[in-house]
Queue: 2 jobs
Job 1
Amino acid sequence: MLILTCPCCGVTGEETEFHAGGQAHLQRSGPGASDEAFEAYLFARENPRGVHFERWRHANGCGKWFHAARCTLTLEVFGTYSAQTTQPPQEVLDAIAKRRPGWTEGGK
Amino acid sequence: MRRYSAFAIAREAARHHQGWERAWRSPEPKKKYDIIIVGAGGHGLATAYYLGKNHGLTNIAVLEKGWLGGGNTGRNTTIIRSNYLQDPSAAIYEKARSLYETLSQDLNYNIMFSPRGVMMLAQTQHEIRGYQRTAYANALQGVATEFIGPQRVKELCPIIEIGGPRYPVLGALWQPRGGTARHDAVAWGYARACSDMGIDIIQQCEVTAIRSQGDKVQGVTTTKGSIDCDKLGIVVAGNSGVLADMAGFRLPLESVARQALVSEPIKPCMDVVVMANTVHGYMSQSDKGEMVIGGGTDGHNNYTQRGSFHHIEETVRALIETFPMISRLKMLRQWGGIVDVTGDRSPILSKTPLEGCFINGGWGTGGFKAIPGSGWAMAELMAKGASPLAAAFGLERFREGRFIDESVAAGVAH
């Protein structure tokens, strides 16, 4: 079973305690953006077979939203971090690099 | 191809079964094909079959990274129905269901289609209204369904507890021509018929890159070398996002795991398919006697083909209330498939930003029942550039806001 640690309250729990909220770090397109940009914001998703940055909510706990870096192929969690950020913190990126040598963001 | 028949069985019985042929060839890939289909699951093979049968195109390769039918085609609960609310969904699923009726004869391969009837239980007032609405919509669409009361449910499926304390059965949407089929046989039957038409099915051949020149697709790079093509069809279910990434575009898809499980075999006790969407579980009995059970999907992106354990618990817990007699059954096997779910929970049958490249995916949790219709529409789309059945399922619907709000692939039992 997937086990996550909430960075807000520090509690470690099984996935039944949390609620998945989809891809993290989506940039909302502002007024005046093209239809394509707004479509991409609403619907296009990374959906990688591997490292994925995603939103979670500690639904049966403190109730706060947070972010997690997780492998969708092995369910390994590389780290969880605050939702009050627009990109993953360096220590999470370092943790991923350590476990997945050669990985780069976006998979390119 | 030697046809299967009663005479063939007698002939082979008389000579110690030495004359059975391989069902399909395993050729090495050629340098170039007119059309390459990536993915030899039901949808990919059906696409190739109807390209050959309906459009006379047979210079086709179907590439498969594992073995054919080894993905979701072999990992579903084999339910076939077409009782959808929206017109585009009802059209393509009803086409599929009607093709299933004669598929054994068309393919000369027994797919064991069993139109035993599918009932979707209404266990809340909201569901009664929803299914009555669907029944009226189906009447207009020419799909034979009716809304039946709880006593009729009990007659059709005596093992149901209709007076359950928490979720009593208040009625059901009943599609008597729905049912089940042997899922592996669907893939094998299509593969045999494709091979007979000269279509190459190449297993153990993983696509590692998609090559293009300008905006036009040129071919694919695979673990068995480079293969050129004029047109490329991506029909890879849960891995659609991975292939789209190779082709240089993104899709409105996320892949999640969907689970199913079967019990030990027991004597025949139910001859219909029952789906209980409020409590997230559905069940039918296989020809071997196993109770085949399906449930919900994971909420998070998942490629493990395994799924989370608590979903099994939730599904079984829910079904025990509706079918008290299964409470002491032992479960034999559990498995998961990777389903690709779109923003509006309806599939994608579409051209893509890369010219000559077509995609068929996003069937989510409802793909098996659609296989013949999906292949039929995808073949027409690839051969002619447009298909009436596929028209509403284009990628542009997300930009234009023309959703097919069906929960076709919703993360619930259906």
Job 2
Amino acid sequence: MIKLLLNYQKRISTFFGLFLGIFLLSQFLPNKENKIKFEDLALGKDSVTVMANFNNKRIHCGGVVDLDLCLKAYNDNDVELPVTLWLGNSQLHAINQYRPGDETAALILHKNLKNYGHYTLTFSQANANFQEHYLLLAFLLEKFPIKTLVIPTVFDDLREDEIRPSFQTILKDQALVKRINKTSTGKSLILNFQNIDNDLVGNEFKVSEGIIQNNFENLLEERLGKIWPIWDEREILRGTLFGKLYKLRNSVFRINASTIRNMIPERYVKNMNAFKDILNLALDNNLDVLVYIPPIRNDVKIPYNIKDYDNFKKEIHDITKEYEVNFFSLENLVPPNFWGKKSSTNLKKVKEIDFMHFQAKGHQLLAESLFLEIIKNKELINKP
Amino acid sequence: MIFNSLTYLLLLLVVVLFYWVLPYKARLILIFSSSLIFYGFWNIIFIPVLLISVIVDWWVAQKILYHKKQIRFFLLLFSLSVNLGLLFYFKYLIFFAESSIGLANLLGAELDPIAFNIILPLGISFYTFQTISYTVDVYRGFIKPERNFVLFACYVTFFPQLVAGPILRAAEVIPQFMKRPLFSFNFIFAGVRLILFGLFLKVVLADNISVLVDSGFEINPEYMSAIDVWTLAFLFGFQIYFDFSAYSLIALGSARMIGIIFPNNFNFPYISTSPKDFWKRWHISLSSWIRDYIYLPLNKVIVHDRSLGGLEKAFKKQGNKKSLFFTMGIMGLWHGANWTFLIWGIYHAIFISLYRLIEPNTRSLPEWFRFSAGIFITLPIIMLSWIPFRANSLTDALNMWSKIFNPSAYLWLGMRENIYLITFLTLIGFFIVYFFNKKIAPIIKSKKYIAILCDTILIMFITSLVIIFFRSINQFIYFQF
């Protein structure tokens, strides 16, 4: 037996390695409660995503992916109500220390403005950057009668540059492409997505998209998923694995939620340009615009380079002045006791400060402040 | 069809199963037909272009055998014209036309750009070089022409190497197709292991690195720091290495499963001790092809007929500088019809020339020092060469290069922190794997039980990771060449 084992060592190790590799996956697969969506990784377990419904109809969407729900909810209204569009990041859909019955600012604002004959529609995506907001606004202008735009300027999100793949579907809309092609942000987004769409442009695969290989591959993927459920769960496994690596990195380099994040020069400039393009687009379409600096926990040292953050706030202020749009700062709006902690972002079990997501009372304050700022605008109040 | 797809794995499974149960002639027909299916999955309309190349070279080679020297030469010219003509039309015509119009406009003419709608057939650069080598080898008398058309067609179109090499010589492969090996599980297990390692390099390493590289090269060079340029150069260097060596490993493994052995195409290229050494370790089948069919003939030297190398035996003198620059220029342009690729080739020629000048003065130094210093100096040189290879334009490449000579550009960072970290870890990981492979692995292999245990654990983790990351979304970089 031993002789046999030694003679066939490569075969044995290959066979058992393959078998154990597959077995390992089934052990590694988290149960349904522990499944981590990669985008929600930074949110932690202490904050809960709440996409608001009003009268069982969606008034808060997580981006292009669930646009149809919001569109259907709006179209179910008997009359065409003017829309207040609120774009933002996870601060709008996450409630820290959530308790049943808690409401997000999106829902509270929707209820308040409903009395004034306005329909508040919120779109929020984790770490959404201005380029994504620009694209979304340009697209939603075709779908809804938007009258007011509310947009937070989150310093943290200016480090982001990636455009979610879900935007690829809306970039197939030629009317949208024509509309955004006039701006530097739009041109850059179109070019990037065309590159993805054509894969390696000008190369030997230019015409390969969607032909025999893709169709056949999709069929095999589907069949394999039915026979072997782990195959369909691989995205979850990737999320889990990246989550563990993220925590490992943070542990090794002692990174936590309070660690200072540096500004990334090129991304900052691109996003600020996109912000200006948003304002141009909004003003071209006669929208009332409200720009605000979002609440941040201010009883502890914030995780930004203070000099960079101050420059950013000044720049936002100057731009809004130049474009003559409403600007106000809600930085200090939410008191420390309405914030919360988040689960550890490293391998230690110690909870960390959450600088972005507050509790339901914070949402209440945010919604009320925005409501007051919006109704200050006489033109809006006078509208039915 | 791409290797990192379920479609390919299914095709391979079917081919391997039938190959071992079919009789000899049917095996060849199976290989040829499955190769056409493999190719046709991308775009069926280019199968005729592939077949033209196959038929012309098969026919020319038969004729060369029976004709006098002068007619043989014309036949060779005919074959080269057809092969290079197709390659020029599909790959270089647009570049040539655009460059000519650009030059004419620079000289004062006001010409409008011409719109071409030419799609480059997959793998044309690889199979063209392969068929050329066959005809030239027959002409040189190294090999006899293959009379069996199907056997010859299998050599050119054999699916594991059809679209991205290795570029094989007829003398290496045709005799293997002629053999009728008996089935052995060794073929299957060795093939599975190579494919598994290849998929690991592709779907786990190269594809995940590619996301970072793509985002990095999208940055306007104006906003890049010098550290960013170095980081991107290293990171892309690793991406292209993992990607291409992955393809080669899967090709090797696929061929091995039906008893065909391909030569290795990579040998730890970033451990090179000189720019010259790099070309003995990187894309070995291409560099030896370029050497045997361009560089050595330009230097009037008789050559060997193997893709594995043999330069020292055949050629002891150094070639002249003109032929070196010309050869490396061709090497660059082979990769793509763009000035950036030409610059890449010339860059290598410059450093090989410099090495030739410096090398005689270093012979008195201790061997360990030459080895360490060689790697330490060569690695950054090689990595920086990838900048024009990957940059979006020549201007971007030059702007990025200029950053590294600007001391003030070393004072800040322009990318996400993860990119620097992953680049550093990849670099360290590469050296650890090299060290492990050279020093530790032989010790482990001698202790049989530990070897089985270590090997099982390795295969287990690789299998898990390959399954988790297996996605047919990214093509192999070398498919575009």
